[in-house]
């Protein structure tokens, strides 16, 4: 009998293959070197291939789809319960093969090259933002050891540090002053890199109609909109907005038993980067909400709940709005009321 379903445990060099036939009997277990993967699957009849959603999964999914196979990606946490024995490559491949056949299994949408490219820009920008913050904190901490205090804020740091060094030049050793100036130059380089990546994101945003559509939602700017469009892809993979919000980890974590419902804080599952962007955008909306007429949903929520809870609630609402706009090809309307 021919192989109808197989699981592939991806790796850098050695891949593990586990294939079964229509009756569920094991037909082949084999290790594949990276250079032999395409040749091996090219000689196979089209079948269902399951893989864990890891770093190179989207690339291999596109490559195997080009050979006529059906590829489905599974989140690693959904594969783990099917590992029967100790963890090793063969057991993982068998677990993937078993999990991909489950009718209730949830799958990860396969990203195209354009989606991966803009997400790579977002990843690079986030890395430089983290380095910039660390560098600014290091400069602030070193100055504090000499009694020089700089207010919070990147702009104030760049503006005040040269002045502080000039005022205290008679009290500070030359080596220390030179070190701080070099660290400040490095901070400026990092800031320049961040702005360059933000410009690339802006250019991509202007060329994408869906990203421009999401930008109209209060609390969502070009960076958040472009990241959402690239990460979500086809919004119709989600049945409704609630599923998208749950995918982003913006819904309560549940620990219920015996018919008693117990809701905890947000689950924090899914993409941390997207969730952070949505919540920070919601905080910006709340910060400016005081200047508006206090009659809308947000002001009503702020009157009875803490602003952090309101920020997460608004982020959840924005996620559902994003799904509605993308799935139904609509434009954002601030005065829209559900039927």
From TrEMBL:
GO terms for biological process: DNA transposition. InterPro entries: Transp_IS110-like_N, Transpos_IS110, Transposase_20. GO terms for molecular function: DNA binding; transposase activity. Pfam families: DEDD_Tnp_IS110, Transposase_20. Residues 6-145 form the Transposase IS110-like N-terminal domain. NCBIfam families: transpos_IS110. This is IS110 family transposase.
């Amino acid at each position: 009998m021919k192989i109808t379903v197989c699981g592939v445990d991806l790796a850098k060099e050695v891949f593990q293959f586990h294939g079964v036939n229509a009756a569920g009997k094991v037909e082949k277990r084999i290790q594949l070197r990276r250079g032999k993967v395409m040749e091996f699957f090219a000689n196979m009849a089209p079948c269902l291939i399951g893989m864990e959603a890891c770093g190179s999964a989207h690339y291999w999914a596109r490559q195997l789809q080009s050979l006529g196979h059906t590829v489905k990606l599974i989140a690693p946490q959904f594969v783990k319960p099917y590992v029967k024995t100790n963890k090793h490559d063969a057991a993982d491949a068998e677990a993937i093969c078993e999990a991909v056949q489950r009718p209730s299994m949830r799958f990860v949408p396969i990203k195209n090259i354009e989606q991966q490219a803009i997400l790579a820009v977002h990843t690079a920008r986030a890395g430089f933002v983290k380095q910039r913050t660390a560098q600014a904190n290091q400069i602030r901490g070193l100055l504090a050891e000499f009694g020089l205090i700089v207010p919070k804020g990147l702009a104030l740091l760049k503006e005040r540090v040269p002045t502080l060094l000039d005022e205290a030049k008679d009290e500070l050793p030359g080596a220390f002053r030179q070190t701080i100036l070099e660290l400040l130059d490095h901070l400026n380089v990092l800031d320049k890199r961040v702005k360059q990546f933000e410009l690339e994101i802006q250019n991509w945003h202007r060329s994408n109609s869906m990203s421009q559509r999401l930008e109209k939602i209060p609390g969502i700017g070009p960076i958040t909109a472009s990241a959402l469009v690239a990460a979500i892809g086809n919004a119709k993979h989600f049945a409704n907005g609630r599923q998208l919000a749950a995918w982003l980890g913006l819904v309560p974590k549940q620990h219920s038993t015996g018919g008693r419902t117990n809701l905890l804080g947000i689950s924090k599952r899914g993409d941390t980067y997207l969730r952070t962007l949505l919540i920070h955008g919601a905080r910006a909306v709340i910060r400016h909400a005081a200047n508006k007429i206090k009659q809308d949903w947000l002001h009503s929520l702020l009157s009875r709940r803490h602003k952090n809870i309101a920020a997460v609630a608004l982020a959840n609402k924005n996620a559902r709005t994003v799904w509605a706009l993308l799935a139904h090809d609509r434009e954002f309307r601030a005065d829209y009321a559900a039927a």
